[in-house]
Amino acid sequence: MNTEYLKEFVVLAETKNFWEASDRLYMNQSTLSKHIKSLENELGVDLFLRTTRRVELTNYGQTFLPYAKSITHFEFEGISAIRRLQNIENGLLTIGTFPSMPQYHITQLLSQFQTSHPDATIRITEDDPVNLLHYLENESCEIVFQREDKATFEKNFLSDTRITRIPYQKDRLVVLMPNHHPLAHSDSLTLQQLKNERFCFIKEGSLMYQIAMNACQNANFVPNIVFTSHRIDSILDMVTNQNCIALLMDAHLKLPENGPRQTGEPWHIVPVTPIISSQISICYRNDKLLSKNAQLFIKLCNDNLFS
């Protein structure tokens, strides 16, 4: 049985339209129709009821659909597993990380490793921390730099025995506000003091959004969020020009080493009290054998952190 025909069957079952299905599959309708007919002939049943505009699954098609999905899923997973193993054997080191690598000196670590091991190839995937551990689970990354709030880190450090967490850095929540704000030059601020402000958050669905939202709710108010973005520079612009304030981690606002120096910023950074912190960890699965390059990278990290 041709698994490509199964994929086409699944797409047609989802769209219920030959034109939409062929467009999604980047093929013409005539070819798609022939493939579906060939699959039906092989099975000896009609999978679809055809009309001039749409198709509907027959009882046979509805019965067959979950099996077709399962076959195509496991084919993809099997091929992906082989490709990952090939990459490891060929010296590819796969690392997942959250945005703002320079501020956390992650790019420096990578550069140091590349200098020490010039034959190694590194592939970096950047994503939000809410997704990064999935990269370890599906083995698309051997190592991830993960951010967790303090309570989650402490819980997972003890209970998540399949993943080794090497503490890397800590950071804390701060308020970013325009220089002309009456509270801008405070030594610290409670979130309750900010309950009537207009807030900028990192995008909804991100870990930083969750941390900031939980912090406000624990201070007994729902923040008035007027802007969200995954770009720190856009948030800085809103704070500067729209008289908003932002909740970020202090490391977000550090200038990268060897980066351009800036003076006279139109905003001020004030620590939040009581301290709300997050833990950055270097994570890897201890139930899987790490590739040689992954082992060397972990050693480099440990040497930098503990020597």
Overview of the structural elements:
- There is one protein chain.
- By secondary structure, the chain is α/β, with parallel strands linked by helices.
- It has 3 domains: 3-76, Winged helix-like DNA-binding domain superfamily/Winged helix DNA-binding domain (Arc Repressor Mutant, subunit A), CATH 1.10.10; 88-168 and 279-306, Periplasmic binding protein-like II (D-Maltodextrin-Binding Protein, domain 2, 3-Layer(aba) Sandwich), CATH 3.40.190; 170-278, D-Maltodextrin-Binding Protein, domain 2, CATH 3.40.190.10.
- The chain is 44% helix and 23% strand.
- The chain is built from 10 helices and 11 strands.
- The chain has helices at residues 3-15, 18-25, 29-43, 59-89, 106-116, 129-137, 150-159, 207-218, 232-241, 292-306, and strands at 48-50, 55-57, 92-97, 121-126, 143-149, 163-178, 198-202, 224-229, 245-249, 267-271, 277-285.
- The strands form 2 sheets. Strands 3, 4, 5, 6, 7, 8, 9, 10 and 11 form a 9-stranded mixed sheet that branches.
- Helix 1 packs across helix 2, helix 1 (3-15) crosses helix 3 and helix 1 (3-15) crosses helix 4 (59-89).
- The termini are far apart.
- GO terms for molecular function: DNA binding; DNA-binding transcription factor activity.
- Keywords: DNA-binding, Transcription, Transcription regulation.
- InterPro entries: HTH-type_LysR_regulators, LysR_HTH_N, LysR_subst-bd, WH-like_DNA-bd_sf, WH_DNA-bd_sf.
- Residues 1-58 form the HTH lysR-type domain.
